[in-house]
Amino acid sequence: MADPDAFHPTRRSLQLSVSGEQARILPDEHDDGWVLEIGGAVQSHVDLHDPTRIRYEYLRRVANVLDAGWPRSRPFRILHLGAGALTLPRYVQHTRPGSVQTVVDLDRELPTLVCSALPLPEGTDLTVVIGDARDALLRLEHQTFDAVILDIDTAADAAGHLTGRQFYGELLERLADPGVLLVNIGDDTGLRFLARQAQALESAAATAGLTGTWTLADATMLDRRQAGNAVLAAGSALDGQDQADLRTGLLAAGPHPAAVLDPQQTAALAARIG
Fold it and tell me: Which domain CATH number covers 180?
């Protein structure tokens, strides 16, 4: 990995041409890390000294599933739909050197800003594709991936074409065997959107011959149906393991308080929310 002490990040900003928002790279107020702020809201956190340090809980849960699916040192092919500050690609390169990664983002300027202000670890094999995630998937039609991560704001119909059974089915079709699809779902109090997407992924998984959908989230969020982020997961990388052992391991990995619902428990939660 490139020596972070040899590089001195600085504040940088630019206007994103598609969203029209201002993107800024700023030093974090609470530690020696850096944050990506878009439209005045912090979107991502990066620790150049320790790429395994992931502040956002939902991203930590995504990383835990990747670690549970394959031996930790094994390189793999991974597709990230949504770039942010490339926190997860940094983690993958650090824990699985030699991995081949592809990132898709709608704003052409964002990956350039991030990579120039906060360089990726040395040796990172990262291809950046600019465009809508669904359109980009068509352009990558001959490629399969060990993992696909969908991390795009889709709540409140922000990008409705990137949700639902059909799109999830298209993503599952791109998985190698073993493979896993991970979807970040941000939702409001009540969690009705989460329930709909869990059912949609369950249906897509059934069509693909998979067991169903796992849910990883803060336990209090699910118990009280509070606003927050949850991770939905499905794929043969999960189906091929002892389900009880997998759930125990993911629960222990946190962050705490952690909730890990297997496919049966996810289906029951979605039914209760209605």
Answer: 3.40.50.150
